[in-house]
Amino acid sequence: YAWKYREHGNPSRNVFLRAIETLLARFERKRVQKDGSLASTLGPLDCELAATMVPEPLASRLRAFAAQEDELILPELRRQVRGDTNSYVPPKWQTGYSAGTLAGQAMFCLARHEQTNHPAYRDLLVTIADRYLGSQPEEDVDAWPMSFAHAIGTQVAAWRFTRQPKHLDQAREFARMAVEMFWQDHPLPRASLKTGHYETITGADSLALALLEVHAAANGLTLRIPANTIDR
At what angle do helices 165-178 and 145-162 cross, to 10 degrees? Predict the structure, then answer.
């Protein structure tokens, strides 16, 4: 709706503003749980982006909603990164059609940091990157190309934040492993480590972008490579 509001140059745009206000009010109410506690609903990313496309006071309301989402999301992310037994801890490599990896959470942290420069998201990403050092999929894990794309992106982002060579070295190693595991001697990468066919849904395009990202970082190229934060 925010994009439609920005693109339409006529009074009908107010319809889109009302639609945004209605949806936002619904999720403001949904945030309050039955016991009175608060829980994240929409997440902050799309609200922050929508705020750049709409006028005040709706823009400030969207940003305030996103900021409170941060307050609700960050404690749970910290528990996940610590590996707390009382929280769901995403796996490092195994993903699926309705599940992501720990590096996928890092891509969310990167996207939010790019929006706000919030240091907590930067620190969480670096911590996740450290947890991946020396890691590789276990034999029984059917990792996707996207799993490697996010792991590579996490290491490159951590290197940009810290300039510690270990992160760039690990990104290059993950890239080497990914090419060897998924492409082998075929023109297209396979859909996962335990399949032989190609599928777009498992993130081969994301992996190709990640390989370009690590190549640019390793060779000091100044071109801007979009991070795989769209896959968060």
Answer: 160
Is the distance from CB of 101 to CB of 88 less than 8 angstroms? no
- Partners of residue 99 on adjacent β-strands: 96
- Asked whether the beta carbons of 210 and 147 are under 8 A apart, the reply is no
Nearest C-alpha neighbor of 38 from the set 48, 49, 28: 28
Give the residues across from 38 on adjacent strands.
32
CA 107: distance to chain centroid? 3
Token readout for 68 is 């409170």
Q: How far is CA 64 from the centre of its chain?
A: 21
Cβ–Cβ under 8 Å, residues 131 and 84: no
Q: What is the pTM of this model?
A: 0.92
Of 92, 79, 202, 89, which Cα lies nearest the Cα of 155? Answer: 92
Question: Which ranges constitute the DSSP H helices of the chain?
Answer: 2-7, 13-30, 45-51, 58-82, 102-116, 119-132, 145-162, 165-178, 204-218
Which of 200, 202, 199, 106 lies closest to 160, judged by CA? 106
- pLDDT tens, residue order, the chain (232 aa): 898 888 876 666 788 999 999 999 999 999 999 999 999 998 999 999 999 999 999 999 999 999 999 999 999 999 999 988 777 889 999 987 777 899 999 999 999 999 999 999 999 999 999 999 999 999 999 999 999 999 999 999 999 999 999 999 999 999 999 999 999 888 999 999 999 999 989 999 999 999 999 999 999 998 878 777 776 5
Phi, psi of 38 (to 5 degrees): -110, 145
